[in-house]
Design brief:
By secondary structure, the chain is α/β, with parallel strands linked by helices. The protein contains 27 helices and 11 strands. The strands form 2 sheets. Strands 6, 7, 8, 9, 10 and 11 form a 6-stranded mixed sheet that branches.
Length: 666
Amino acid sequence: MSGAGEEQGKGGALADAAPRLQLFFSYSRTDQKQAMPLIRALEQQGFAVWWDGLLEGGDNFLPTTEAALHKADAVVVLWSKTSIDSHWVRDEATVGRDRRRLVPLSMDGSLPPLGFRQFQVIDVTRWNGKATAPELKRIASAIAAVSNAPAAGSAPAQIGNAPAQIGHGPAQAGSTNRRNLLIAMGLLAGAGGIGAWRWFRPEATADAANSVAVLPFRNLSGRADQDYFAEGVAEELRTTLSLNRQLLVSGSASAGGFRNAEPDTRQVARALGVSNLLMGSVRPSQDRVRITARLVDGNTGLERWSQAFDRGMADVLAVQAEIATTVADALISTLAKDANWRAERPGSTRNAAAFDAYAKGEALYHIGGGSSSDAQALAAYDKAIAIDPDYGVAYASRARTLAAIANQESSVTRGNRLRSEALASARKAIALAPDMPEGHSSLGFLLMTQLDIGSAKSAYQRAFELGLGNASILSAFAEFSSNIGDFDNANAAIKRATRLDPLSPSVFRNAGMIAFAAKDYSAARVALATALSLNPRQGIVHYVLGDMALIAGDVAEARRQYAAEPSRLSQLRGLAIADARLSGPAAGEAQMAKLVAEYGDGGLYQQAQVLAQWGRIDLALATLERALALRDSGLVLALNDALLDPLRSQARFQSVLARIGFSSPA
């Protein structure tokens, strides 16, 4: 771990002559003894040095560190055998590199990790501890050089497709086009002003040589029913590359917005904030397939590499690994290989028929057509597993789909049975592929919906560690962190997710929900309006906008938003609240009667929200207690739910929170 602090630092020779340059000093905590003399020497040179020892006891670590990192004139990174394995140091070095502010040092002769070897490293292994030593002069010169360099340009935040339901995998139904992109950008500009725009904007890393977007591969078979296979090939490549920690891989929702067209590669690269595009086509015919792939420089539009592969269908998966290896080698330093990355997705299959069935399942699931298409997707995953019983990825997708079907169930008994089956599939996925982030994310989601918060936290943490390059994994982790009141981790993860998938409304929806839970309503409105601009049928968004209007006292606007919410359960609970205020208790009771009739005990949490807003405190508490007895998954929102604020001071409510595993926020 490394760090920063407030604007502090001892005076020096530069202090009186000009504003002092601000340094961020990144190092591994285990190297602190060796780092401190360097920090003190730099302070004596007149630099203001930020490091983790300057954090005050009450400081909020992540926001303070991030603010210092992005304000620094130079990011000095102390590489060592320990720090090259530190995710904190690598993330901080990445920001320094992408801002063109990186000054790398080596304290024990260790080479920097892949992705950082294009920079000349200053060797301080023989430094004598004196501020007049040649090493310090070289460091000062390097700081002066990078501090005068212009910062990398910013890629504007832009938005795209529909969400995955559990937080991994490609987008659901919906499409992105250039017209919608422009509308979304206009909404962003008008919805909350520059401050909110900057809050959600992706990091300015468009110039990073190791950034790439895998666009949907084109199906050249002439048969539309083969589209799923071409898209499945591209998604496998995207997921495999995202597991390489030296690469920045744009998420599926963003890349998916450019399907079925021959795009302007430079325009697409700018929109996605990447320097490279991987494009291709698939032409299956009988038992043969031709896959072409080309890596395009997003700045020039010129090809960096291209190749065609003519293989039997059984060799398709080997071609994917070959393409992934070639792309990774082209984008990162070839001085060494990342020993922890393989050009094969954990939990994948080598059986072409199993992959074909899995790809059909993915296409069906992401149609987002409801229970019918979900049931067909489940059958396809079951077929893939029957062909290859060790297909971990298929088990993870099966778990996700079962959870989606369970969420559409009005029967608590049937819903719980489906969730138990989903839980078994998630555990099987992890047993088959312990390093597959999707399995852990599915497990975390299912444990969360069963209100096993402690176990869910462990599962989500493991998914986060394995899926740092996967925007939907990060987004799911961020949503869970928000639910348990950990807004530091939630904001850090959702910010990285928006960098990786800047055209995804599901990521922006989650960003809006996180901001709403944290009571940052201005930022929430920006994110939610952005998601809706490209997918007007995006679930959850309208009811959150309605809740914000309700809190602001604009009940008419709240009702308008509730009426537009695609989720019938959320719509009815909102209308029951709004209609009672606008038209009297009888109108609210009429909507509540519909809620109870249609969802019964499956809507107990929503009934409690309504009763709390009606001021029926005892009945609301009793309903929440019933919901807890039935393990109603809605209770995962209870810690930060503003609609339950009328109950918050009640001992019975605090007991409900404690029994779930929450502690009430301060």
